[in-house]
Write the structure tokens for this entry.
Amino acid sequence: MDLLKQLTANEMVAQIISFLLLMALLRIFAWNKLLKLLDDRRERIASEFKKIEDTQASVERMRSGYDRKLADIEAESRAKIQEAIAEGRKVSQEIRESARQEARAILDKAQENIENEVAKAKQELKQKVVELTLGTTEKLIKEKLTEEKDRKLASDFLDELEKVK
């Protein structure tokens, strides 16, 4: 405030005229350039924001594309895992079935062998019985028949025994 008191009216008018003259000169020579600089800066900032938005949109599209691809890969891997599990179960079932068939074949073969051995043992037993019967009969009769008659007699006796059973 002290500075305003020291200025005279002429000095104040001169200062105001100088200021207005300076503003007029600036308006004539620098104002359009200054406005152009500000407009250029505004356009540059707007274009940078546009580039950033475009880049963000592009990144978002890429991210969603990658997410879709990742989901597809995960679905495919789950499908392959399920397929492998199903194949494993199928192979397991085939192995079990093959083992059952082999076990059945072994049991059938064993049963057949047992039946053959039983038949063979019966035949041997029959032979022994015939021989024992012939020996006993010979002792009882004290006379020897021909071997063919002896065998026929013993065989007929055993056949009759089997019929009685």
User: Anything to note?
Assistant: The mean pLDDT is 85. Residues 2-164 form one domain. DSSP finds three helices and no strands in the chain.
